[in-house]
Design brief:
Distance between the termini: 139 Å
Strand content: 25-35%
Strand order of the largest sheet: 8-7-6-11-10-9
Largest sheet: 6 strands, antiparallel
Radius of gyration: 48 Å
Helix content: 25-40%
Length: about 700
């Protein structure tokens, strides 16, 4: 087959070709080194690689020293010697030669070692070639790789910075992200300056490294010859590539920053919605000039920063508005209450990633009432927005008005629920109203879907007070269930009543009862002073964080240093409200027992009930019952029942079968003394009981 194929072809006479022409075509020269004689033969192409004419080379390897610099020669000799010593068949390396004109050129050689039957090297045959183009390509690829890596690194910084800016909520957050070690400093910037546009001026908000502030630049006009003003005016970036250019363009600014060793700078306008909102400057101390890629990256980064900055500015504006609204809705001051120490606190929640959410419907209030009584309110309107705060403000006002009118706690809560329902809002509210008589320590509590109150005793012991409750405000009116049971507790001198919203109790993933137990434990170990205790609790809530608000009210009944000269209790009883009459009876009995008049408790309660019933039956208005101790020694207890009728009560004979007419007879029989006094357009029926000294 070979013969037939060969006969079918017309082959050239010099086929196959001698290797010298093939090597020459590839700009390679060959050499043959006889190790026994030391002769080093090179062909014509090899002479050309070494830039030697034939008459300049005598076949001695040492003659090549005129072209091979000594360091390169030592390295080549060592390489060849090592290859012959360790039994290698070949070697190869790059080295430099110095051409006739003095320039250096990279060259490559590869040799094949021929040995005799004993393994002794006898001959080396190899090639040499000009590697200049190869090294240029390697350098080009290396430069391209370096550029790609720099571009990748810059792009990565942009991505990381943009991702970090997405979590920035305030202007300071934006600045902190940019100054962070993972921020713009990875682009090589020495320092950062930033300013915001405000009413035709630029206000500096980030001034670079410590000690770099330039006097007079905190607020500058946009038309002044400063770089940030220029980029705001032109809406175009300004790249300063040398100290000389900086000094020439901005002669007023440059003398003040020469100590920073600035070599270049990039000033970028911060544009959002086609309007300049500020400017940013990046100052460098180790570079000159910016490549097109670097300029594009910085411009893109400036756009991202501008969007984040505008979002932060909107957030701060809305937060300021929300905070102002919240403060306007809460009581400006808490009145001083004789016989009690009061502490209140409020902490706004923080809903991450949303604007205007650092506001809610939590509130507290303290309402001074006649007769030494005080009303304490804690509540929470559904939602965390300005609407919740507005509803809260209205609800707080009506609760205060209903309480000040003298309504019972249950009536106050029921009317507030009707008001919220008629307000035609989607919101409901939980609330707890406690009306305390500080002279007796009797506290009437009404709960509308709110968490229970707590009482801390003088020894630090704290307990949760279970109070039967009704539906939240707004819902009770909607479902027609306006009954609010009234719980009565006694607050001894030195004891503290604590009311709070669920933001202080609830924790993510934890049960409400567990949260209450945790709160009880904190109160047990907390400071004795109510202000210090309130501060401690709110600090814990702040450290824990969370998106819910916290409102807190602490009322501590003071311990009396001297014997009390007398107690006083007053209750408003509305007509047609049997629940109010029942509550009044309960309040009177609790007060009488608290004042140490247990032996006459039944008599006092019966007489007071008779007087209140007469006032409601024989007048068209309400009755106001007042119970008080007149003296500290030889103590007498007085009951006053006021109504709006000027008609005096008459003693009547009820007869054997009569069901009425015995009221005044009962009063006359059970009291030590009684009488009637005119009070403006009405009257007051009063009676007194001698209850003896306090045991």
């Amino acid at each position: 087959m070979v013969d037939r194929g060969a006969s079918a072809l017309s082959l050239p006479d010099d086929w196959p070709a001698h290797p010298d022409p093939i090597l020459a075509l590839n700009r390679m020269g060959s050499f043959d080194w006889d190790l026994d004689t030391g002769l080093f033969h090179m062909d014509a192409q090899a002479h050309e690689v070494f830039d030697l004419r034939p008459d300049e080379y005598d076949g001695n390897p040492e003659t090549l020293g005129v072209r091979v610099p000594p360091p390169e020669g030592y390295r080549l000799d060592g390489l060849v010697a090592q290859a012959m010593k360790d039994g290698s068949e070949n070697y190869g390396t790059y080295f430099r030669i110095r051409r006739r004109d003095g320039s250096l050129r990279w060259t490559h050689t590869q040799g094949y070692i021929r040995r005799d039957e004993t393994g002794r090297p006898r001959r080396i045959i190899g090639i040499v070639r000009d590697a200049t183009q190869e090294f240029e390509e390697i350098e080009a690829r290396r430069d391209q790789a370096a550029q790609d890596e720099a571009r990748r690194r810059q792009t990565n910084v942009v991505q990381l910075t943009t991702a970090a800016l997405a979590h920035a909520r305030t202007v300071q957050d934006v600045i902190d992200v940019l100054k962070d070690t993972h921020g713009l400093t990875h682009l090589g910037a020495t320092s950062l300056v930033m300013g915001l546009v405000e009413a035709g001026r630029i206000r500096l908000i980030a001034e670079g490294p410590a000690g770099s502030f330039v006097p007079g630049t905190l607020v500058t006009r946009i038309d002044e010859p400063y770089p940030m003003g220029e980029v705001v005016r032109t809406l175009a970036p300004r790249f300063i590539e040398s100290p000389e250019e900086f000094a020439e363009r901005y002669p007023i600014l440059w003398p003040h920053i020469t100590d920073l060793n600035i070599t270049s700078a990039a000033y970028l306008p911060l544009i959002a919605q086609a309007k300049p909102i500020g400017a940013m400057g990046l100052l460098y101390s180790d570079r000159r000039g910016f490549t097109p890629d670097e300029r594009n990256v910085l411009v893109a980064l400036g756009s991202s920063i501008a969007q984040s900055l505008q979002r932060a500015m909107f957030y701060e504006q809305e937060k300021d508005l929300a905070t102002g609204l919240q403060q306007a809705m809460l009581p400006r001051t808490i009145p001083s209450v004789p016989g009690a120490d009061i502490a209140v606190r409020y902490r706004a929640g923080s809903a991450a990633g949303s604007l205007g959410r650092d506001i809610g419907g939590d509130w507290y209030d303290l309402i001074p009432l006649p007769g030494g009584r005080v009303g304490a309110v804690i509540g929470d309107v559904q939602g965390h927005d300005t609407h919740a705060a507005a509803v809260m403000g209205q609800l707080r006002i009506v609760l205060r008005a209903y309480a000040a009118e003298g309504h019972t706690p249950a009536t106050v809560m029921a009317r507030a629920s009707v008001f919220l329902h008629e307000l035609d809002t989607d919101r409901f509210a939980t609330c707890l109203y406690a009306e305390a008589d500080l002279s007796t320590g009797v506290v009437q509590v009404v709960r509308a879907g709110h968490i229970d109150p707590l009482i801390r005793q003088t020894d630090g012991t704290c307990r949760r007070i279970a109070v039967e409750g009704g539906l939240p405000l707004g819902l009770s009116a909607e479902f027609g269930r306006l009954e609010y049971p009234v719980g009565t507790i006694e607050l001894d001198p030195g004891h503290t009543l604590l009311l709070c919203t669920d933001g202080l109790v609830e924790q993510p993933g934890a049960d409400l009862d567990d949260g209450m137990q945790t709160l009880v434990a904190m109160i047990k170990t907390g400071p004795d002073d109510v202000h210090d205790l309130a501060e401690r609790l709110i600090d814990v809530a702040e450290e824990r964080g969370g998106g819910d608000d916290v409102a807190l009210l602490l009322l501590r009944r003071r311990t009396l240093d001297t014997p009390q000269s007398g107690g006083r209790l007053q209750q408003h009883v509305a007509p047609g409200d049997p629940e109010a009459l029942t509550q009044a009876r309960h309040m009177i009995r609790a007060a009488v027992l608290a004042w140490g008049a247990r032996e006459r408790a039944d008599e006092i309660e019966l007489v007071a009930d008779e007087l209140i019933t007469n006032a409601l039956m024989h007048t068209e208005g309400s009755a106001v019952v007042t119970l008080r101790v007149l003296t500290a020694t030889d103590r007498r207890l007085r009951v006053d029942v006021e109504d709006s009728s000027s008609a005096l009560p008459r003693r009547r004979d009820a007869g054997e079968s009569g069901v009425s007419g015995r009221g005044l007879l009962l009063v006359d029989l059970l009291t030590d003394v009684w009488g009637v006094e005119a009070r403006g357009g009405g009257k007051c029926v009063w009676c007194e009981f001698v209850v003896g000294e306090r045991g």
